[in-house]
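It is time I had a proper look at our fold encoding. Can you supply me with one protein entry, sequence and fold together? It will help me judge whether the discrete encoding reads sensibly. Leave the record below and I will have a look:
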Amino acid sequence: MTRRFAALAALAVMCAGVELVAGRGMSPGVVWDVVNGGGDATARHIFFQLRLPRLLVSLGAGACLAVAGLVLQSALRNPLAGPEVTGVTPGAVLGAVTATALGLAGWDSPLAVVLAACTGGCAGAALLWLLAGRGRGDPAQTAVHGVLVSAVLGGLTAMVLLVEPGELGSVVQWLVGTTEGRVWQHWHLLWPWALVWGAGAWLLAGPLTLLRCGDDIALTAGLSVRPARTLALLCAVALTAGAVAAVGALGFVGLLVPHLAVAVFGADLRVSLPGAALVGAVVVCGADAAAQLSSRLPAPPGLDSGRFTLPVGALTACLGAALLLVVVRRTPSRTF
């Protein structure tokens, strides 16, 4: 396990290095000069005020989504459960877009956007909690109600777009997910939130491992199933809200990274939860590096090359959809 963690840590460092030199505006040589204390004021500003916080936010958001996905899949005993099943992702998008449309927040005020997204995400989770009612501890009912809540919140987001069509760009950024334009304020808001709720999820590793084995076995072992599942879902909701508030709805990260983590680190969640955080950070960081490298490619005919930037959420969605098909075809009836 130590060698596996070391290998993933080395891969994370490599992806981080690629991301720092991948974007336009600075050549790798200029980046190297800045790292060694040189470079002009513009280069130092781009590196320290734009690229470095973007890197940290991508690492933190990937870790949050991966841990949230593993917690959900363990608590609900559903290998296809993801953060979207809680209604938090569409709720956070709705909160951010609504606040922007009302003029209460904007991309130039990260704190206001993050607070609006967190509020929307918590509201989505609360709506799921109310609809689930007495059956909120049942995995199947929670998943079904989560899909319904997500559909309702997505419809409300579409209504906001109809009322304020000028917010189309904001809606697309939140729905697809992007790390572009992230600054230190985003990171300072994300890391304490991720640390607190990530530690809470790790403290629930024992109960979650029992929940993966089934409610009957968990009850036999003396676990209070409903409170344990409720606390686990609360951690997943909080981690998802923090990630979505920072980078938007990155598709499939919370759904597929847990499968990779369990395959690499095993079913002991005391090990696989930190492993999932590291794998999620590597996946999002690597995808963001690939997205920035794509900005160096020639733009398609008819498209302004200065605006040709592939959002990281588009890459995670395309790759995630392909991997999801593989998972479903190989394990069509898997329920843990």
User: Anything to note?
Assistant: The mean pLDDT is 83. Residues 1-295+309-317 form a domain with the ABC transporter involved in vitamin B12 uptake, BtuC fold (CATH 1.10.3470.10). The chain has one domain: 1-295+309-317.
